[in-house]
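Lab channel / #folding
Pinned by the channel admin:
"Please post every new chain as: sequence first, then the structure tokens as a reply. Keep commentary short and put observations after the output so the thread stays searchable."

First post following the new format, from NK:
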Amino acid sequence: MLYAAQQIKEQLVAWRRDIHMHPELGFEEKRTSTLVADTLESLGWKVQRGVGKTGVVAEYAIHPSEGPTVAIRADMDALPIEEANDLSFKSCYPGVMHACGHDCHTAMLLGAASLLVKEEFPGVIRLLFQPSEERSDQEGFSGAARMIQDGAMQAVDLVLALHVDPSTPVGMVRISSGPSSGGVDSFSGRIIGKGGHGARPHEAIDPFYLSAFVILAINGIFSRRIDPFDANVVSIGAVHGGQVANVIPDHVDLTGTIRFTEKRVQHKLHAEIRRCFEVVRPLGGDYTLSFEIGLPPMINHPSAARLVQRTASELLGQANVLPMERELGAEDFGLLSEVCPGAMFVLGTKIEGDQRFGHNSRFDIDENALPIGTAVLAQSALDFLRHSNK
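Reply from TO:
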């Protein structure tokens, strides 16, 4: 499979560069989804357009009744970032860029689609080209949630995906069982005082003064209120209050993010943040506080992770299959892997001698990685179908 993927490298690069030049934000991926759907239809896949608003679902089966269904997911959306790279395939659209590698994910899944139609296998392969991994719609649903609502995960027995990693060398992949990215919620609080003249603070209840206690308390949650073996983060991202230098305002607003890998820690963090805001009341203030529930943690199922580990080791050599480096960034693939067992592996795409971080205006990859990711995706799906006893 790796040899076959290497033979289509030129096509993989062409797809990736075309998509990179024409980035589209979440739920706006009309050109990208049209390219995907038209390509899949030309390859013989049964295609459904407009799934999850702008997503594409495709199926291919030779003997559908003889085996299970495996789904492979790639996200298609870009980010609202102005590209700083001087590339021949630089983004054509001001302020929009593929700065997280979703152009690569889409190209590799198209590559897998072109290889899989040449194989014999039992069961069904379903491809999920997902919109809007990076943001939610006005009702708070990301692309994965919208595709699930439209039935994209019905009767799926296993779901797989990959993500490019600019810090891991080309030729290597990372995969582990268990939590591989964090769940994410956000909080919004208002600290309420009593406004007044800056020259007479004793007549006011200064919400900035009250905020200082809240901020200190929040920053003590990790070190003093949560078990040190429980992964968690609470970060304040914005503080807003006041208009002019000599006026004490009535209130100050705080917003922040919460990360976790277990629901019990999520519930504990919510309770501790509320406790932190409570400190303003003995000081004469008040508060309001709300939480927005976001994405769940992404958990790699043990059997799915073992499948990818075994397949990648056979293709690349065991020395080139590394454990995941755990972190608490969010990924809505976790919604898909809640429906059925699933795993996402990390693909090394590092440009030697350079560092191109994700969500950065200079993000880029070594395109030699594209056939590798294509091969691991395709072969993992085949190995699951051929060795399953459903």
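NK: The domain at 183-295 is CATH 3.30.70.360 (Alpha-Beta Plaits).
TO: also worth noting, The chain has a mean pLDDT of 96.
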